[in-house]
Amino acid sequence: MTTTDQKHQKISLIIGLGIPVLMVVFIAAAIHLPRWLSTPIDPAFDFLYSVGWPQEFSYRVEQGRLLRVDSKPPAHGGRGDGARLYLHDVSANRSRELTWDQASRLLLDSAPASPDGFRVESGRKPGWFFFDYRHDYNRRFLVRNHHSIEQSLEFSASGPYYGSSFRLLGWVVEPGQEVTDG
Known about the structure:
The chain is 22% helix and 34% strand. The chain is α+β, with helices and mostly antiparallel strands. A 5-stranded antiparallel beta sheet has the order 5-4-1-10-6. A 3-stranded antiparallel beta sheet has the order 7-8-9, with no helix packed on it.
């Protein structure tokens, strides 16, 4: 073999191995660069949620107020002791249980996204294969654009099945503010 044939083989080998490596680098950059280049914004709006299976009534938001609506007993056999209400403080990433009276005084926006564009989404957990992902109902994230922030919500005190019964009721329109009676 002549030296020119060896040079052509080396160039072919370099190109043959280089193209897949460059494709992997390009795909990784396309996935991660938007996240790295965008500026994360901290969520500003707390939210009210319920966890549990409603027994005698369910909750609904109308005109910014939380309402209790009478309902039939659940068809699943009545497990649990009813839905519990929680207010989640996004700045501290902490939830606290509220009574009906406390929750009914909050001014709420029932839109799926907060006024600053965040949504509450369930997590995912891997299955047997890298493409086999399933919902993880006990993990919730605040998601906006390419950023997600895991939230520490209260599920465990309500039993093992209550993560799937999470229900976002509304975003507190003015953080720390309550609707005044009058």
